Amino acid sequence: MRAERLVALLFTLQSRRSATVAELAAAMEVSERTVHRDLGALREWGVPVWTEPGRHGGVRLVDGWRSRLDGLTTREAVALLTLGTPRALAELGLGTAVSAAHAKVAATLPAQVREQAQQLAERFHLDTPGWFRREEESEELVTLARAVWSEHRVRARYRRGEDEVERVLGPLGLVLKAGTWYLAAQAGTDVRTYRVARMAQVEELDEPFERPPGFDLAQWWARSSAEFERSLQRVAVRVRLSPRGLRVLPRVLDADVARAGLAAAAAPASDGWTEVELGLEEPEIAAGQLLPLGADVEVVGPPEVRAAFVELLEAMLARHR
Question: Transmembrane stretches, by residue range (predicted)?
Answer without folding.
Answer: none
